[in-house]
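Please describe our next protein:
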Amino acid sequence: MNKITLQRLLSRIGYEFSDTSLLTLALTHRSCGARNNERLEFLGDSILNFVIGEALFEKFPQAKEGQLSRLRSQLVKGETLAEVAREFELGQCLILGEGEMKSGGHRRDSILADAVEAIIGAIHRDSGFDAARERVLNWFASRLQNIQLELKKDPKTELQELLQGRKKSLPQYKVIDVHGEAHSQEFTVECRIELLPEPVSARASNRRTAEKMAAAVALEQLQTISK
C-alpha cells in the first residue's frame, strides 16, 4: 500500500496510528500466511459488540434484553460491517494472498467485515479502549441514530413473506451484469416473481444490496397493482 492510499484510508477512518504496522497487520488476510489479522479481528469483535451493546442500552432504556440483542445483531452483522468497509473504500487496501486476489477477495463481505473488526482491534492496541470506542461510535453514528426498537424487515424478507402469504412461488434472483473495474464493480440483479409480468432489476456495489433493492422495486410495483 503506497503512502497516498494509506493517508486516504487514515482520513476515512479518522484515526492516525502511532504504530502503522498495526494497521498493516489489520489489513492482512490469512491467505498471506501465519502473520495475519485474525487475532486483531477477535479483539475488535469483542470491542465492537460491547460498544454497540452499551450504546443501545443507553438509547433504549425501556428495551428488554431480547430486543437489545436483536438490534445489536443487526448493527454488528457481517453485511453491515461490509457496508462500513465499502464506505472506507477498504477493499483496495486489503493485503491478500494470490488466490484471494484472483478470486475477488477484496469484494467479499466476510473479508471486508473481518478487516473492519481487525482495525478496531488495532486501534485498541495502538491507543487503548477509549480511542477504539470513539471510532466505533463515530462510524456507526448514523446507524445508531436511525435504528428503531422494532426493526423493519428488509425488502427481501418482506417480499418473501408476502408471496408465501399468497401461496406463490418464492422470488428468483439472478445476477445479469457485472460492470466496472475489479476494485469498484457494480452488480445488476434481476428479481423475477410470478405476480409481475416482467422481472425487475437494481444495481449496487454488491450482490446482496442489489437483491434487496430489486426486492424493494418489486414490492413497490405490487403495491401499485393492488391499488
